[in-house]
Amino acid sequence: HTVSTKEGAVKLYRQTKDIDFVLRRYHISKASLMRWNRLYDGTRESLAPRSHCPHSQHPNAHTEEELTWIRNYHRRNPNISISCQSEIILKSRLMQLKEIIATRDLTMSVRKKPVIAQVSLHICQGEIYGLVEKNDKSRQMIVQLLLGNRRPDSGEILLFGQPWNETEVQTGRVGAVFPRAAVYPKLTVRQNLEQKRMALGIARQKVLWTMEAVGLDDAAEKQARHLNTTQALKLCFAMALVSTPDLILIDQFGGKMAEQFCGLIHRLNQEYGITFLLVGSSVTPFAGLATCYGMMYDGKLLQEMSQEEMDDVCRQYVDFRVSNASKAVAQMEQMGIAQYKVIDSDTIRMFERFSERGSIAASLDAGGIGVTEMILRNESPEEYYLRLAQKEQL
Predict the structure, then answer these.
(1) In this predicted model, what pLDDT tens digit does every residue of 333-389 receive, in sequence order?
(2) Which alpha helices (DSSP H) does the chain contain, by range?
(3) What gap in Å lies between CA 303 and CA 118, rounded to an integer?
(4) Cβ(372)–Cβ(322) under 8 Å?
(5) Is 228 in contact with 216 (CB distance < 8 Å)?
(6) Degrees (nearest 5) of the Cα angle 123, 307, 266?
(7) Under a CB-based contact definition with an 8 Å cutoff, are residues 272 and 244 in contact?
(8) Residues 128-183: pLDDT tens digits?
(9) CB 340 within 8 Å of CB 351
(10) SS3 237
């Protein structure tokens, strides 16, 4: 309605006090008339249309930098759908070092026997976290606790900085991949993904994107029961990926699953910022893929370490146990040795000139520095984990 109509209706109503007559005369509703009467203060400006836009920016609105990333990405990919990919591509740009999963002194017993004992994990956004546990019961229990299928006897689980809430899993922020996922065997690959999509209220285009991402676009119309082992694993992965979650947990990672998904996991992590928690019984499948490791044995957390720390521990080196580390370092530098690390007051770790270790020990001894032990080490990540487990058993 125009301002003139509003003003005329209000003035007539105030003169006659006959609501029905005003409504018939101007063809308006009673609610509109009452609203205009409330607003009218004698000036036409009081009845003029007003903007409903907020005066301040929404707290979740994109910053100018983020908008620039979106514009640049769509300029390079003009045919891409925003609902499919652009919003998850931002995750990799907006990654901050914050914890997605944090457990505090997590404890769980079954029939009065401890299965999980005082476990405190720290999994940050954007990481590929490899969790190793040889004990099947403990490994299965930690997965069930993290997914909310069981409640711990004591301790706390924080998901995205908040106490664990099953809605995070139900709304698709957390995805889980199991070797035998729950799918409808008589439905096709596309139909299974459509069922998950409709349950979560996701855009239809993401089904096509998911099938292309995992390599199932050629088997889209194939029934789930007729898929081979590789295709069945891909469908399990696709069911977790269709909601483009912030976190994907993969249980029993290794064997064919590791062979099929190593490249895909790395690509999704780098391009879309998806965090992965890989749970397995061996460190070997994680090598070269994981960025952080959590090593458990019999329900106890032995150590958490980054890939850089793992590389440092597992590289070839020589440990010299000497009587005085500071004097030994000065003499080694005179011999041109630059790659070394002082472990403690009587141990020096050397990372070069391994074939000359005998002559180096003799030179130190001749300089008045007693060498009591010299060990050449070259452990693999799996051997390092087993050594930690053996110490725990003692």
Answers:
(1) 888 888 888 888 888 888 888 878 888 888 888 888 888 888 887 778 888 888 888
(2) 3-16, 19-26, 30-39, 64-76, 87-93, 136-147, 166-170, 189-200, 205-214, 229-241, 256-272, 307-314, 325-334, 357-366, 381-393
(3) 13
(4) yes
(5) no
(6) 75
(7) yes
(8) 999 999 888 999 999 888 888 888 888 888 887 778 765 555 557 788 888 777 78
(9) yes
(10) helix
